[in-house]
Specification:
Blueprint lengths: L9 H12 L4 E5 L2 E4 H18 L6 E5 L4 H13 L2 E4 L6 H11 L3 E5 L3 H4 L11 E5 L5 H7 L15 E6 L9 E5 H7 L2 H5 L6 E4 L6 H12 L3 E4 L5 H10 L4 E4 L1 H8 L13 E4 L6 H11 L2 E6 L8 E3 L18 E2 L4 E5 L13 E6 L6 E2 L3 H7 L6 E10 L2 E7 L4 E3 L2 E3 L1 H8 L5 E11 L3 E10 L8 H11 L8 E4 L13 H5 L2
Parallel strand pairs: 1-10, 3-4, 3-5, 4-7, 5-6, 9-10, 9-11, 11-12, 12-13, 24-25
Antiparallel strand pairs: 1-2, 7-8, 8-18, 13-14, 14-15, 16-17, 17-19, 19-20, 21-22, 23-24
Helix pairs in contact: 1-2, 1-3, 2-3, 10-11
Organism: Streptomyces ureilyticus
Protein name: AMP-binding protein
InterPro entries: AMP-bd_C, AMP-bd_C_sf, AMP-binding_CS, AMP-dep_synth/lig_dom, ANL_N_sf
Length: 509
């Protein structure tokens, strides 16, 4: 990987370095328009000057509310130059949820794309700290006018890698979202992901995952850190993804399993995907059968990352372990620890390491981990151990160095004193030809404490699939206590922006 100078903040250094080395090389492409490194650097400098002029000192927050656009990176780089902390809000939030995030982050300046202004309108008067709102891409294009009013020279360096760089909000699947705060050292550590993915200066990365989530943001940062060309897509709709891969000769992309499922349902042979070298995936468990299908259809390398908002990256399942034969059972694992990462599996009660093959809580020590939750010391102390390990809340076990995930600890079902891991039940039920999607949750039971409940999306080929058929199928492959006692049929499963099923929503009834 090309060396990025360490004398200033990592994000600012990315933009400055490549604007100096390859000023005319393609940096960002969006909606048919490509900006080179020189242009992105100059525009980022203007953002930095605009922010620095709006409030004295560093460490103020600037919030971006919008889909994947080049302006996101101009704000990200510009904030780094000015010593400000970037925050990207989930644009799928409802106005009341968005109000919480904005007032929790307390930004001075807010950038919003014109298609999302309507989400701010109902709560605009309740935004307590926002002094300036700049609209991107409308007919008057406030953003472009705002840029032209700023000095195109980079302000004096005011930050280093020890200073906070950006905040990412958790999905909020269990309650109120929390903001994970990352300093420059953690940002710089993410650059190594480029080498793991095989991304170089000659690569073309498609960034289709939302940039307000760890997988989308840090894949793009790693690619830009090595001078790669980053093509931005506002959504991950399968046809859009395939068309962009063909048009721009994309070599690498990152997706979630739900997107892979949609992609493999398309007529892949209709598109020229010959430039595509690597598909990375992350965000939620991958069905091994779906993965085998994708390996056959796409005929490129596959790579799995496991991590969280708080850790970014923990393990990787490399291309060589994506073997269709899978004699070692590695295809269903989360892979091996990334470089400089240590993984432990501990008893959550004693906090002692468990034996190989025994399920416990996954703990990780990684240089990409957050430094803290924003203004939440109690929550920070709950997940960050004194020795630097972070409690992930995931249940799993180690076998031969490979991490195998079972479930979130909070999702484990305890029925009659027995632990049931929903993913095990889901994997079995997903093989039924009449089931398109399934999620398993625990439901209260007077007799057993909890019982297993399956929430099923029927496959179009079997619209009359019954509860009894699902339960009988499960009992062919699972112990009785693991089999569902209740089956609910729904049109679709609720998911967050990263493709994870919102089991909290399923439990609400």
């Amino acid at each position: 990987m090309t060396h990025i100078p360490e004398d200033t903040a990592a994000l600012a250094a990315i933009c400055r370095t490549w604007a100096t080395r390859t000023p005319e090389a393609a940096c960002l492409t969006y909606d048919g328009v490509t900006r080179n490194w020189r242009e992105v650097y100059e525009r980022s400098c203007r953002v930095a000057q605009g922010l620095a002029g709006s409030a004295p000192g560093a460490r103020e927050r600037v919030l971006y509310l919008g889909r994947n656009r080049p302006e996101f990176f101009e704000v990200l780089f510009g904030a780094s130059m000015a010593g400000w902390v970037s925050v990207a809000a989930n644009w799928r939030l409802a106005p009341p949820e968005l109000l919480f995030v904005v007032n929790n982050a307390r930004p001075r300046v807010l950038f919003v794309s014109e298609d999302l202004v309507g989400k701010l309108t109902p709560v605009r008067d309740e935004l307590t700290t926002v002094e300036t709102v700049v609209v991107i891409g409308d007919e008057t294009d406030d953003y472009e006018k705002w840029l032209l009013c700023q000095n195109p020279q980079e302000p004096p360096a005011v930050t280093t890698d020890s200073d906070p760089a950006f905040m990412m909000y958790t999905s909020g699947t269990t309650g109120v979202p929390k903001a994970a705060l990352f300093d420059g050292r953690a940002v710089r550590a993410t650059f190594s992901a480029a080498g793991v993915m095989g991304v170089t200066q000659k690569s073309v990365l498609l960034a289709a995952l939302p940039l307000f989530h760890a997988a989308g943001l840090n894949t793009a940062i790693a690619a830009l850190a090595v001078g790669a060309h980053c093509v931005l897509s506002a959504d991950a709709k399968p046809r859009s993804v395939l068309e962009v891969v063909e048009r721009h000769r994309v070599t690498t992309t990152m997706v979630v399993p739900a997107v892979l499922q949609a992609l493999q349902d398309e007529d892949v042979d209709h598109y020229d995907l010959s430039a595509l070298d690597t598909i990375a995936y992350a965000g939620s468990p991958m069905d091994p059968d779906l993965l085998r299908t994708c390996l056959r259809r796409f005929r490129c390398k596959f790579l799995q990352f496991y991590g969280s908002t708080e850790t970014i990256g923990i393990t990787v399942l490399p291309p060589e372990d994506h073997d269709l034969a899978d004699t070692d059972g590695r295809l269903g694992s989360a892979g091996l620890p990334l470089p400089e990462v240590t993984v432990r599996v501990v008893d959550p009660l004693t906090e002692k390491d468990v034996a190989e093959g025994v399920v416990g809580e996954v703990w990780a020590k990684t240089p990409t981990a957050m430094s803290a939750y924003w203004e939440a010391p109690e929550e920070t102390a709950h997940v960050l151990a004194p020795d630097g390990f972070l409690r992930t809340g995931d249940a799993g076990f180690l076998r031969g160095g490979y991490l195998h995930l079972c479930d979130r600890l909070k999702d484990v079902i305890i029925t009659g004193g027995e632990n049931v891991y929903p993913t095990e039940v889901e994997h079995v039920l997903s093989t039924h030809p009449g089931i398109a999607e399934v999620a398993v949750i625990g439901a209260p039971s007077r007799r057993w404490g909890e019982t297993v409940r399956a929430v099923v999306v029927r496959a179009p080929a079997q619209p009359s699939l019954t509860e009894g058929e699902v339960i009988s199928y499960a009992k062919e492959y699972l112990a009785g206590y693991k089999s569902p006692t209740v089956v609910d049929f729904v049109a679709q499963l609720p998911r967050n922006a990263s493709g994870k099923v919102l089991k909290s929503k399923l439990r609400e009834p």
